[in-house]
Amino acid sequence: MKHSTISQTRRGHRGGPARRIGRTLALVLPVVLVLSGTLAVTRVNWTGSPRSSVLTATDVTDANVSSKAVAQAPQDVLRDQLMTELQDRNPGQVLTHLQQAVNGHPSLAEHCTSIARALGRAAVRIYGASRAQSYARPVCDTSFASGVLAAHS
């Protein structure tokens, strides 16, 4: 065999079964890791309560039956109060009350963004996009303004 024939054979050779298995693993393994990580995160009890973190079908049924009897979470109560207040007051006053509530109860800070966005979307429905935007200010990292923008788009 000539040297050129040997080098062409090596270049043309794509690899055997081990190389194909390696390529398959390189494509499949990241997908498996992401899915298993996602499943692990969904099974973690993020509420901090000692109750089981796995939600079963009976839990869903029980939750639907007794949803009226269970008290709302503090952030849901605050959001509902502020949404009601938005009907009677301008968004600037409502945002002030949101900021005061977060300052008074720091545990609500993690929910401030979602509440402010909801207020922004509601303000667009009530006042229109340009007027609602005029009330925007940096409460919860300008989340009110992003809610206005999302509702207007």
How would you characterize this protein structure?
The protein is mainly α and 153 residues long. The protein is built from 8 helices and no strands. Helix 4 runs antiparallel to helix 5 and helix 6 packs across helix 8. The relative contact order is 0.08.
Brief characterization of the structure:
The chain has helices at 3-12, 17-43, 57-65, 74-88, 91-104, 109-127, 129-134, 143-152. It has 153 residues and is an all-alpha fold.
Mean pLDDT across residues = 75
β-strand number: 0
Residue windows where pLDDT falls under 50 for at least 5 positions: none
- Shape descriptor reads elongated
Largest β-sheet summary: none
β content, as a range?
Answer: under 5%
- Based on secondary structure, the structural category is mainly alpha
Number of distinct helices? 8
Helix content: over 70%
Tell me the span between the first and last alpha carbons.
70 Å
The ordered string of helix (H) and strand (E) elements is: HHHHHHHH
Rg for CA atoms: 27 Å
